[in-house]
Specification:
single chain; 76% helix
């Protein structure tokens, strides 16, 4: 693994940003629109007609902020590969000494930059417009975000492996896989409101414990270390599984000479 190759891929992504309006929209437009819309919903629920509690507003705004981080991190990881497929440069990258690990590390670094910007934009707007401060959770926010990012990158590996195996016809999975999980992982409501069978499905994903832990922390001020341990253990399992799957799919495509056909 060479640092200069990782740095080159980071610069490679940044040059894409420089001339790409959709990527700037991803960084600023969608987080702003999301927090404004959900903020209006929260304001309505807390109004005199609905008289919802402060906790409900915090739960919704906290949930949508953490969800946006997860969605952006997962999609950004997959798009790091897709943008080279779309621009017909994926083969050029892999005829160089570049390794998959170097590309993955560079993609994670770029994703972290976008996540930090997204988080700051959403937290700043939520505080300025709706007096909600996500940082009230203190240092507990860091393990929540870490668990979300690890699972997002694992799903990014999985969806990219699918794209390598089945070509760009399968690229929709990079944009939809997060939304497939959303009903099961209790983003905006407690897990207990779901049917029992669906609860078991939700408990199989590490981010379910993050959203449950966030609500418990907002309600009681107590950080649930058991939920964190379950989330960490499941993240390790999914990272190993998705990393193995990505490696197998990439090796299969490379062996069959199908890499160029992705373009």
């Amino acid at each position: 693994m060479k640092l200069h190759r990782i740095n080159a891929i980071i610069l490679h992504h940044l040059y894409f940003w420089k001339r790409s309006l959709p990527r700037w929209l991803d960084v600023f437009y969608w987080p702003i629109i999301t927090i404004v819309v959900w903020g209006f919903i929260t304001s309505y629920l807390r109004g005199p007609e609905m008289q919802a509690t402060e906790f409900l507003g915090a739960m919704l705004l906290g949930g949508i902020t953490l969800w946006m981080i997860f969605q952006r991190a997962q999609q950004d990881f997959s798009i790091a590969y897709l943008q080279d497929i779309w621009s017909r440069s994926i083969v050029n990258l892999y005829v160089s000494p570049l390794t998959n690990l170097e590309f993955i590390i560079a993609s994670i670094a770029i994703g972290l930059i976008k996540v930090v910007i997204t988080l700051l934009v959403m937290v700043g707007l939520a505080f300025a417009l709706y007096s909600f401060n996500l940082f009230d959770m203190g240092f507990a926010l860091l393990p929540f975000v870490a668990m979300i990012l690890i699972f997002a990158w694992s799903l990014g590996l999985f969806s990219t492996g699918i794209i390598f195996r089945f070509g760009t016809d399968a690229q929709i999975i990079a944009f939809s896989i997060a939304f497939v999980l959303q009903p099961f992982v209790a983003v905006f409501y407690p897990l207990e409101v779901l049917p029992q069978v669906v609860q078991y499905i939700g408990l199989a994903f590490p981010i379910t414990y993050v959203f449950e832990g966030m609500r418990e922390l907002l309600a009681t001020g107590v950080f649930n270390w058991l939920d964190f341990a379950w989330s960490l253990g499941l993240n390790i399992f999914y990272m190993i599984l998705c990393g193995w799957f990505f490696g197998k799919m990439f090796a299969s495509v490379k062996k069959k000479g199908l890499l160029a056909k992705l373009e």
